[in-house]
Sequence to fold (304 residues):
Amino acid sequence: MKVIHGIAGLRRFKNPVVALGVFDGVHLAHQRILKRTVAIARKINGTSMVVTFWPHPQKQESLYSLKHRLFLISRIGIDACIVIKFSAGFAKIPAQVFIKKILIDRIGARYICVGRNFRFGCHAAGTAGLLRKLSRRLGFKLKVFDVIKKNSVPVSSTVIRKLITAGKLTGARNLLRKPVTVLGTVIRGNALARKFGFPTANVNPHHEILPPNGIYAVNIMLKGRQYKGICYIGRRPTFINNKIDKKRHVEVHIFNFKNNLYKEDLEIQFISCIRKERKFDSKEDLIKQVKKDISLVKSRFFLP
Fold:
């Protein structure tokens, strides 16, 4: 997928079919819009495109970082994604101007695909109704998608965000139609776990929503390959001498893996929480428990 930051110097694409939205989380409802965008583009021999915004226009904490979001969008088969920086100046652009000057004049959209509840433009005046009105005048076709509900709950990033922070991973997975994931870059750590006999990769998450502190069975995606492992999220209470460590650490131990992962991007896919974080009386007690955790994860989730 070709990623374009901003619209300066933007070249025209062939028969653009544009999905418009933030697409934070790329959840079930977003996937439906994106997959239909790809299908329409193929039908008219055009280009499937996404026009999205960063940072989040509603100033909410994002489910996924921009890099993670782009990665998930590309998996669906979108040809190109235009990322527009959402700034105070951009927020003042009237919705009609955005549609005419950017979507039509600069991008040349033949089709626009959008969720019914999506709002854009100054004072969020841009609606599906406005797009429908202008589609006749400006000569583009419009596909509006209704809200999807699962068990009477609307599928939305806000709902999924609350489920993840509450540790309700199964509920979040049902709305995402994929595992809860975190994308992060491996950074240098203090190598404590290596000294204890189970080396971990210290992961710096890209400003993403994290599940509660605890121990998790996980799959780890690295350069297109999937590995099995265990993940710790927490504040290392056993080693902070009763002080409060405000930083939440994310560490993964990949089974049967010895390569250097420094500076690599890992996608952590959460399967299940096996226990909450706790403080141990000694490092020896912690080591015994971690060995039990690893054995439990292997036997419960990964043995044939």
Remarks:
- The chain has a mean pLDDT of 92.
- The domain at 179-302 is CATH 2.40.30.30 (Elongation Factor Tu (Ef-tu); domain 3).
- The longest helix spans residues 283-302.
